[in-house]
Amino acid sequence: MYFYVKRFLDIFFSTLAFLILSPIFLLVAVAIKVESPGPVLFWQERLGKNGKVFKICKFRSMVVGAEKMGSGVYSEKHDPRVFKVGRLIRMLSIDELPQLFCIIRGDMSIIGPRPPLTYHPWTIDKYTDQQREMFAVLPGVTGWTQVHGRKTVEWNTRIEMNVWYVKHISFWLDMKIFFMTIVKIFKTSDNVNYEETVVEKKDSAEK
């Protein structure tokens, strides 16, 4: 039953947030366009519910072609690929706002496991049966992992936390995550990967 309520709340609050924040959308779009040549939005394939591939949308914070430069999928401290406006919107998590569209169209939820790349930390066929449980629900803009370290947490641990969330999902847990996320945003913490966060995967039976 909660999943129907959760979907209603996703649509309602995402639509409301877009209407309220539309001036910010416009200002950020103009600022990006002025500073960095290229599109305002950045689209990237991610793994969603049931492992289905969808395209996530963000405000672009890096120069065009950034993934083919430097450290690839990782952002380093003082990463030269991130332009000034991009660094600011990342720090404030404003780059995530276009994901409201992903929520409205049904690819994401406000709260849920963060959708991984199709190839990183590994492809869908490399996940264990236990790890695949994280794909039982819609991925989220924020989630249990994001409020417990976010990009500083090693990937096997992230996945374990995502699976834990799926098994314990409830209205009260989502409310807790929402308010913890607000605190994280104001602290601007855990917004950048400073080092490799993938280690050799262990069999779940060993844990």
Protein described:
By secondary structure, this protein is α+β, with helices and mostly antiparallel strands. It has one domain (2-193). Helices cover 38% and strands 10% of the residues. Strands 1-2 form a two-stranded antiparallel ribbon. A hairpin with a 5-residue loop joins β1 (41-47) and β2. The radius of gyration is 17 Å and the shape is globular. The model is unreliable at 200-207 (pLDDT under 50).
Key descriptive features of the protein:
single chain, 207 residues, alpha+beta, two-stranded antiparallel ribbon, two-stranded parallel sheet, 5 helices, 10% strand, globular, disordered C terminus
Going by helix content, strand content and strand pairing, the class is alpha+beta
Number of helices: 5
The strand count comes to: 4
Strand share of the residues?
5-15%
Count of domain modules: 1
Uncertain segments: 200-207
Q: SSE order in H/E notation?
A: HEEHHEEHH
Biggest β-sheet description: 2 strands, antiparallel
As a percent range, the share of helical residues equals 25-40%
Rough shape? Answer: globular
Mean pLDDT: 87
Please compute the radius of gyration using only Cα atoms: 17 Å
N-end to C-end Cα span: 33 Å
**Strand arrangement in the largest pleated sheet:** 1-2
